[in-house]
From TrEMBL:
InterPro entries: Mechanosensitive_channel_CS (IPR019823), MS_channel (IPR001185), MSC/AndL (IPR037673), MscL_channel (IPR036019). This is Large-conductance mechanosensitive channel. HAMAP family: MscL. It holds the Pfam family MscL. Channel that opens in response to stretch forces in the membrane lipid bilayer. May participate in the regulation of osmotic pressure changes within the cell. Homopentamer.
Amino acid sequence: MLKEFRAFIAKGNVMDMAVGIIIGAAFTAIVKSMVSDLLNPVLGLFTGGLDFTNNYFILSGGGPYDNLDAAREAGAAVFAYGAFLSAVINFLIVAFVVFMLVRYLNKAKSIVMAEEEAAPAEAKPAGPTQLDVLLEIRDVLKSDPRPRAD
């Protein structure tokens, strides 16, 4: 079983997937920073200057609290719609970037395929047909001066 596992891990697809996951995690951190540090303050301007990630309702557990983290630390049940909207914005940004990447790769792939189709294929020299070979054998046999035993 260990040999099978080692062979599975050594396959190229598994390594490619691991690289993709690592890059995806780094990309997610960049998108999270972009949303929390750049987009949320702009959205906060439209919501009256409030910090967008700290928008929540207290369902039970007292209150009021200064921010969402304080409410969670106090054990209050909170409806954190701001954090949810931040997660949705993160998802939409990641989905859009992946869409643009796939779109670009498909476009590049179609350009390469079109160039390959447009390039004339080099004509390989045609070999002799079966009939040509048989005629050549016949001619050699006719020109052979040795007597045949008929």
